[in-house]
Amino acid sequence: MSSNGRKKSELTRRDLLGKASLAGLGAAVLASPELRAQEPQQYQVGKDPGKHEPIADFKFDIEASRGWIGEAGSAKEATIVEFPASQHIAGVSMRLKPGGIRELHWHAIAAEWALVLNGTVMGTVISPSGQAATDIFEEGDIWYFPKGHGHALQNIGKSDAHFILGFDDGHFSEFGTFSITDWVAQSSPAVVSRNLGLSPAVVAGLPKKELYILPGKVPATIPEPYLADDLETNQNPHKFRLGKMAPLTFPGGWERIVTAKEFPINQTLTSVMQYLEPGALREMHWHPNADEWQYYISGHARVTVFGAHGRSRTEEFGPGHVGFIQQGFGHYVEQIGSEPTKFFALFNSPTFEEISISKWLAGNPASLIADNFEIPREEVKRLPKKALGILK
Ligand SMILES: [Fe+2]
Ligand SMILES: [Fe+2]
94-133 as b/e, with b when 16 or more CB fall inside 10 Å? Predict the structure, then answer.
């Protein structure tokens, strides 16, 4: 009997995890006949949903949240505060009115990615080597600003601009980033005057707090010259025309996948635009190397996540909904409704990895599959022989 009165044979898997480090657990199980005898019981315990947290809520209606609203635009966040399931990816739905400016700022802990859904946005960004870049982003374009690089945005079109920002850290907060007006307001006026060469009277009139999003005028010339006329141009483009790349087509839809290979400055994320015809099925699969953060642009879909230990969870998604699938969790997407479904997924890895159920099974001998599924060999012959991607 152990000290708490239970027999050793009643040790649970949780007890084992508590008694051995994860690294040492395998060796401990192999070494001890007593522990080996526990395997069937561990399996039973593993099947008990009471021993595992339920799958976290993986849906967030970002567009239904109020967010930040100002004269020149708005921003709605999905950080770890609003959407706790997503620890490593955060998002912001931002709108700028014509001329509206997202002021000069940087993000200390995350790189910034974005997809333009509507409108025309100018972005400026400076690299640590002092190279400046200006780009014009239109519908279907993505941008990527590496962690810490100073940048600013302006809607230079005649209509509202709407873009979805993605960050490679769920703890990031778009409202807590480092803005130029906030910094200057928090600094000694004498230092600001000395550093920027502005008179004390001008410094006294600078904004007293962060402006975040503010009205501006669409410049007459785009792009205007920089303040400095001797800057090197950045040779590593921040812009990728995702909407213009050739898609991978399947019977039920298409995908456009952009990794660091196609978009080299993008060293931490992979973007996948997906289009599902009515009735299509994005086949059962998982991603070994990354979480998947989804934003639904149009149409509807039903997503089912498999979280092991007898756990699964299904949610329905529509325009403006954000979904999250944890790294390694099995999942599939069923298109629903008469309108095609368009959504994008952001992965927190610069390379794209996926294992589909069809390809996995196809890479096994028929006898093994027949025994594993307890089905006749004739049935095994019906299984797909390659990845299906998006089924009709
Ligand atoms: Fe930013
Ligand atoms: Fe996926």
Answer: bbbbbbbbbbbbbbeebbbbbbbbebbbbbbbbbeeeebb
Report pLDDT digits (tens) over 213-268: 999 999 998 888 999 988 888 888 999 999 999 999 999 999 999 999 999 999 99
* C-alpha 303 to ligand 2 mean position (Å): 10
- Å from CA of 113 to ligand 1 middle: 9
Alpha carbon of 199 to those of 113, 192, 228: distances in Å?
A: 37, 9, 20
Would you call 358 helix, strand, or coil by DSSP? Answer: helix
**Angle at CA of residue 286, ends 82 and 343, nearest 5°:** 55
**Residues in contact with 233: Cβ distance below 8 Å, sequence separation at least 6, in sequence order:** 131, 132, 133
Kindly give, in sequence order, each residue whose CB lies less than 8 Å from that of residue 102, ignoring residues fewer than 6 positions away. Answer: 73, 94, 96, 152, 153, 154, 212, 213
Ligand nearest the Cα of residue 121 is 1
Please give the Cα distance from 174 to 389 (Å, whole number): 35
Q: Are 328 and 286 in contact (CB under 8 A)?
A: yes
What average pLDDT does the chain have? 89
Query: Both tokens of residue 125?
Result: 């960004």
Taking the CA of 352 as reference, the closest ligand is 2
What does the pLDDT read at residue 262? 97
Residues marked as catalytic: 102, 105, 107, 112, 151, 174
User: In whole angstroms, what is the distance from residue 114 CA to residue 141 CA?
Assistant: 8
DSSP assignment letter at 233: B
Q: What is the mean pLDDT of residues 183-189?
A: 98
pLDDT range class, residue 175, cuts 50, 70, 90: low
- Characterize 323-362 residue by residue with b for buried, 16 or more Cβ atoms within 10 angstroms of its Cβ, and e for exposed: bbbbbebbbbbbbbeeebbbbbbbbbbbebebbbbbbebe
Provide the token pair at 52: 């595992």
Q: Judging by beta carbons within 10 Å of its beta carbon (0-12, 13-18, 19+), is residue 304 exposed, middle or buried?
A: middle
**C-alpha of residue 331 to centroid of ligand 2, in Å:** 6
pTM for this structure? 0.86
